[in-house]
Every structure is written in structure tokens, then in C-alpha cells.
Amino acid sequence: MDTTIENKKRTVSIIIPAFNEAQTIGAVIQTAYNHPWVDEVLVIDDGSKDNTSSEARAAGATIYRLLSNQGKASAMALGVARARNDIICFLDADLTEFNIQALTQILEPVITNQTDMFVGLHHSNTYTFNKLLRFFPIIGGERALKKELWLRTPTQYKKSFQIEIALNFFTKKYGYRMDFKIIPGFSQVIKEKKRGVLKGLWQRMGMILDIIIISFRLYIIFSIKNSVAKKRKKFA
């Protein structure tokens, strides 16, 4: 196993999907650019109505702007298509107190080939929810992975917040390695604070619904169909 990092500098493409995140995105970009393993920072402005693009440009990121809000997965897909490196790392644009040490902990397991995808959960994340791994897969926007994992995830599952569960599922299905851990020291602005209580709560409920839908589709429906197909092939 290659556990050295001396020859692995500037090999990561950071992808930040963003929608109305002008208040926080600049600091996230600066942290990413200050990291010695980061080669480029791509911001996909998902139809923002505020100054997200100008703040991101001022911080030095390469900007791709969608004319209307297409959803997180669509923004991520555009970022992957434009990324020039084989290791990519998704970061949320609304992180606070994000630092180089935290980013190192997210990148290093993939950079050193200890795993193929790594998810960093921050202390304010719904870790209790994430602990129910036998029922729900890991949910987290801060994840480093080999680009091939994204490319092998079927397009029909790359929708809104469903994408994170789809990446988890197909990473394991195809025999790749995945790991995660809690990384203290940074946080995330909650939806209710950013959008207002009612709108934020509505968006949160939509996110939870996405998670339930994709979990049912993949871990129950897809798995049953796959099992039936294997049995038919065995007795054909």
C-alpha cells in the first residue's frame, strides 16, 4: 500500500455545488486552495440569486453557472465533467470554521489509497441518524473519491440529495472500499438559518424524503430485483 504523500501533491479537484451561499463560500474556497494537495477548485453556481458567483470568483475558484436551480446532483455532475483530476472531493458551500486539517483528514485516505471513497462527518451532523447504518447509509457532503466511482454510478440515481446514498450503494456493490469518521472542528449553517424557519424546514423535509425514496429504491427494490435476476441466471 502506498502510504506516502510526497509525490501526491496537487492531484485533487475540489467541487463545490452552491446555491445562494455568498456568505460562506469564500472561506471554504480559500481553505481548499491553501491545501497542498488541491490542484483546482470548481464552483458550480446552481442558479443563485445572490452574489455566490462573484464571491467565489474573488476567492479564486473557477466558476460554472447554471441559469436555473437544477439541484445538488446536477451541479455535482457538471463539476465532475469539468474536473481534470482522477481524485475529486465534494465540499458543501455553507461550511463554517472549515480548515486545512479537516480537509487533510478527508483527502488522505483516498490520496494514499487506503480507501476509494471517504466521507467526513462534522460534529453537528446528524450522527445519531448516521449511526443507524443497518437501516440508513452514511449521509455527508464532504467526501473524497476516485472519479471512477462517480462514473460507475447510474445516471438515473444522480438526483438531488439522493446522490450521496447512490454513491454509497454502488461503491459497495462494485466492490470498492468506503470509509468515514467524525471530524470535529467545523460546522455547517443549517437550512432554517439560511432560508428562514418555514422554508428551511420545508427543504429539510424534502431532503429527508429524497433519502427515504432512494434508500427504498436501492436497498430494497434494486436488491430484490438483482437477487431474482441472479437466481434466474443460476437456474437458466
Fold and architecture overview:
The protein has a 7-stranded mixed sheet, sandwiched between helices. A two-stranded antiparallel sheet has the order 5-9. The longest helix is centred in the C-terminal third of the chain and has 39 residues, at 197-235. It has a single domain (12-189), classed as Spore Coat Polysaccharide Biosynthesis Protein SpsA, Chain A. It contains 9 helices and 9 strands. The protein is globular. With 236 residues, the protein is an alpha/beta fold.
Number of helices: 9
CATH architecture term: Alpha-Beta Complex
Q: Compute the CA-based radius of gyration.
A: 18 Å
For the largest beta sheet, what order do the strands appear in spatially?
3-2-1-4-7-6-8
Write down the overall mean pLDDT.
83
Order of helices and strands: EHEHEHEEHEHEHHEEHH
Q: Tell me, briefly, the overall form.
A: globular
Instruction: Report the end-to-end length measured between terminal Cα atoms.
Output: 41 Å
The proportion of residues in beta strands is 15-25%
CATH topology call: Spore Coat Polysaccharide Biosynthesis Protein SpsA, Chain A
The level of helicity is 40-55%
Main beta sheet, described? Answer: 7 strands, mixed
Q: Provide the CATH superfamily.
A: Spore Coat Polysaccharide Biosynthesis Protein SpsA, Chain A
SSE class:
alpha/beta
The count of β-strands is 9
What is the name of the CATH class?
A: Alpha Beta
Sequence stretches where pLDDT stays below 50 over 5 or more residues? none
Total domain units = 1
